[in-house]
Design brief:
Layout lengths: L5 E5 L3 H12 L3 E5 L16 E4 L1 H10 L1 H9 L2 E3 L1 E5 L8 E5 L8 E5 H14 L3 E3 L4 E5 L4 E7 L6 E7 L2 E4 L6 H12 L5 E16 L13 E5 L4 E6 L5 E8 L13 H11 L1 H4 L5 H7 L3 E9 L2 E2 L3 E3 L2 H4 L8 H19 L4 H32 L4 H16 L7 H7 L4 H19 L10 H18 L22
Parallel strand pairs: 1-2, 1-12, 2-8, 5-14, 12-19
Antiparallel strand pairs: 3-7, 4-7, 5-6, 9-10, 10-11, 13-16, 13-17, 14-15, 15-16, 18-19
Bound molecules: flavin-adenine dinucleotide.
Cofactor: FAD
Protein name: FAD-binding domain-containing protein
Keywords: FAD, Flavoprotein, Membrane, Monooxygenase, NADP, Oxidoreductase, Transmembrane, Transmembrane helix
Length: about 500
């Protein structure tokens, strides 16, 4: 039955499109307002970063329909582990670390632009109306009115356009205008407001690597990393077997920063010095570096996420965080699927209850994954050469192998399960203590006392699983999209 309630979704990025699709399943009238032009018209073929889809993202897509999940999975490439490219005299010095013991422990690489175009098309097919070139300027929350300054295509004059809807969803990303309006409104209402924005002082830039020749031995079903301490390069495969490369560098601070690398000569020298095996395969890296924009990274913690039944923030608009756990989009997709479950359950009680329950359920999870992504960043920057840290990681693999029903790493829980991020974070803290105790005074896994390990797991981890109703079958989300065999080139 058609539902005349009008949902205004601001931002037709990944989260906004998926949310629009879910809302159409409830038969609401849905309008998406997007500041950019239609990305499907992008003549450059839509340059963009790549991201990895993991369990939570796949579950949210499947929750719409197999048709959508299949369309998306078709444009992904499974990656089964990380290939680390060391800097050494031999340019082919690499180490491969599988994500897990089975091929099911893979993630799925996808172009953000391509994913966005698939979701947009699906949203339109589901009946969402999409207004492109509609940058919102502000929201009148009281009257649920959205304000836009638009340009008349003939006279090029600016004019104001407004739309009044029944409920507003802010899915306008990390720089969200909806969030600004929501926080301002809440403050004016005398509510306690959290508004923390933590810039990381790191930036990123997208570059490309055309499909490498076979002799380059680039494993297409792998994430490639060139770790260089305070800066690194990462490559994720595309389905035509080319790679999208992301360079991470400090924003400022001398030669090894975006500020310092400011001429073609410096860029050429930097890449040839630190990434000699990669540059051989990247014919346009200097031009791309000089032309492509630099993006900046940071974390946002805000509260509240909702105002009554008027406005809810979803995706990066509520919880933008750094990409070092590969979870931003997955978290946004999980926001949407949880919102849909809550809507199903509380619809009868009205949208205020739905918004309240959504915020109650997701805020702590958004904070947890934002903090875990920062932990990962610090680990990458300071601990990857630390012997104690490496020993703890090796012990962790051994514990997962010896006690598969009782021990699962935080990484696997975050990327392969549906266990809440806040619980994953708590598990990580318990595991830190166990690993620290087991590694004390040891230099190799062979020296570890595994009877003590079992005792510690029984004492600290098992009660946590029990208290939170988590069993070993929750350690891995299973879906038909996970391959049973490692793909071959
Ligand atoms: C380098 C990098 C690597 C990443 N890797 C991963 C990964 O591996 N896995 C993962 O899950 N996530 C990853 N992410 C995070 C992921 O890209 C984001 O979490 C995701 O794009 C968020 O989707 P969103 O729709 O909430 O926000 P966005 O993608 O930012 O979309 C917001 C939309 O709103 C529109 N908009 C903005 N302002 C306005 C306005 N005023 N009016 C109207 N529309 C507006 C924008 O044009 C855009 O279309 C990565 C991010 C970066 C930067």
């Amino acid at each position: 039955m058609a539902n005349n309630t009008h949902m205004g979704v601001v931002g037709a990025g990944l989260t906004g499109c998926l949310l629009g699709i879910y809302l159409r399943k409830f038969q609401y009238k849905v309008t998406l307002f997007e500041s950019r032009e239609d990305p499907r018209k992008n003549q450059e073929g839509g340059r963009s970063i790549n991201l990895v889809l993991t369990s939570r993202g796949i579950k949210a897509l499947t929750g719409v329909s197999e048709a959508l999940a299949e369309r998306v999975m078709k444009i992904t490439v499974p990656v089964f582990g990380r290939t680390l490219h060391q800097l050494s005299s031999s340019s082919s010095s690499t180490t491969y670390q599988p994500y897990g013991p089975t091929p099911q422990h893979c993630n799925f690489s996808v172009s953000r632009w391509e994913l966005n175009t698939v979701l947009l098309t699906f949203a339109e097919e589901m009946g969402c109306e999409v207004h492109f070139n509609h940058p919102i300027t502000h929201v009148d929350i009281e009257t649920k009115t959205l304000f836009f300054y638009l340009q008349d295509p003939v006279s090029t004059k600016l004019y104001q356009q407004r739309y009044t809807v029944d409920h507003i969803f802010g899915t306008d990303g990390g720089g969200s205008r909806c969030r600004q309006s929501l926080l301002g409104y809440s403050e004016a209402q005398g509510k306690e407001v959290q508004n923390i924005s933590q810039p990381l002082r790191y930036g990123y830039k997208e570059l490309t690597m055309p499909k490498p020749p076979p002799e380059a031995k680039m494993d297409v079903f792998s994430l490639h990393i060139w770790p260089r301490g305070s800066h690194f390069l990462m490559a994720l495969p595309n389905h035509d077997h080319s790679y999208t490369i992301t360079l991470y560098l400090p924003e400022k601070g001398g030669d090894l920063s975006f500020e310092g690398l400011n001429s073609p000569e410096k860029v050429k020298k930097y890449f040839e010095t630190y990434y000699p095996d990669a540059v051989e395969l990247m014919p346009d890296f200097v031009k791309e570096y000089m032309e492509n924009r630099t993006g900046f990274l940071g974390t946002i913690f805000v509260n509240p996420w909702t105002v009554s039944d008027k406005l809810a923030l979803v995706g990066d608009a509520a919880h933008a965080f750094t990409p070092f756990f590969g979870q931003g989009c997955n978290c946004g997709f999980e926001d949407v699927s949880v919102f849909s479950e809550i809507l199903e359950k509380y619809q009868e009680k009205g949208m205020k209850t739905v918004f309240d329950q959504y915020s109650l359920s997701r805020k702590s999870n958004g904070d947890a994954i934002g903090n875990m992504a920062l932990d990962n960043f610090r680990e990458m920057m300071t601990k990857t050469a630390d012997e104690k840290f490496l020993l703890e990681k090796a012990i962790e693999i051994e514990l997962s192998n010896r006690f598969p029903d009782l021990y699962v790493s935080r990484y696997v829980l975050v990327t392969h399960s549906l266990v809440g991020y806040d619980l994953c974070k708590q598990v990580g803290l318990i595991q830190e203590k166990i690993l620290s105790e087991l590694s004390r005074g040891k230099t190799s896994v062979a020296q570890v006392d595994f009877a003590l390990a079992q005792k510690l797991i029984q004492e600290h981890l098992v009660p946590f699983w029990k208290k939170n109703n988590i069993s070993s079958k929750d350690f891995n989300y299973s879906s038909k999209y996970y391959p049973t065999q490692r793909s071959k080139l």
